[in-house]
Amino acid sequence: MQKLKYLFFFTVSITGVLIETFPLIPSAVAGREDLPFENLRGVKNLNLEVDKKDCQLGMNKTEIVSFVYSYLNNNNIPASTNTIQTSSHVLNVSVNCEYNEFLSIFSIDLQVNQFINLDGVNTKVITYDNGRYGVIGADPFVQVEKQQLLELLQEFVYDWKTVR
């Protein structure tokens, strides 16, 4: 027999207390891949950048850099973590989240950005874009974050190797 967990929300009214119950929200994750992976064909190496400014849950920026860099290195994808850009292509990993005591909403994006000069202005062009977004309830965010990053990296490595 399966037990259902419930969240309790209390609303106080003048006549008393109204109690509403809702089943605990299960985790839900969706993905997207916006650009054709053939765009990776001409990319020779990548500078790795991680953006995680507003999300205090899960891994910190340094842990994400290490996780992503190790995975790329183990799969023979040339990447650098130098702050001085050594490539015109940047692999940007962005983790965003909003949370309260009951649930977390997140998005994780993996993009390859290329910087080109148009009429003297450096312009960012997105070469590759893949991401995940979702809602989680009781699951620890760090586990979900690592799993979603791993899946995005697996897809990226597959796409990278497919065009070579």
What structural category arises from helix and sheet content?
alpha/beta
Query: Would you report the number of β strands?
Result: 8
Quaternary structure classification: single chain
Gyration radius over CA: 20 Å
Highest CATH level, the class: Alpha Beta
Spans of at least 5 consecutive residues with low confidence: 1-25
Sketch the major β-sheet.
Answer: 6 strands, mixed
- The CATH architecture can be named as 2-Layer Sandwich
For this structure, the CATH topology is: Double Stranded RNA Binding Domain
Distance between the termini: 51 Å
What does the average pLDDT come to?
80
Strand content: 35-45%
| Helical fraction | 10-25%
- The side-by-side strand order for the widest beta sheet comes to 3-8-7-6-4-5
Written as H for each helix and E for each strand, in order along the chain, the element string is: EEEEHEEEEH
Q: How would you sum up the global shape? A: globular
Number of domains: 1
- The number of helical segments is 2
Structure description:
- This protein has 164 residues and is of the alpha/beta class.
- It has one domain (25-162): 2-Layer Sandwich (Double Stranded RNA Binding Domain).
- The chain has helices spanning 61-74, 141-162; strands at residues 6-13, 16-23, 28-33, 46-51, 79-80, 89-99, 104-118, 121-136.
- The strands form two sheets. Strands 3-8-7-6-4-5 form a six-stranded mixed β-sheet, with helices on one face. A two-stranded antiparallel sheet has the order 1-2.
- Strand 6 (89-99) and strand 7 (104-118) form a beta hairpin.
- The chain starts with 5 loop residues before the first strand and ends with a helix.
- 20% of the residues are buried.
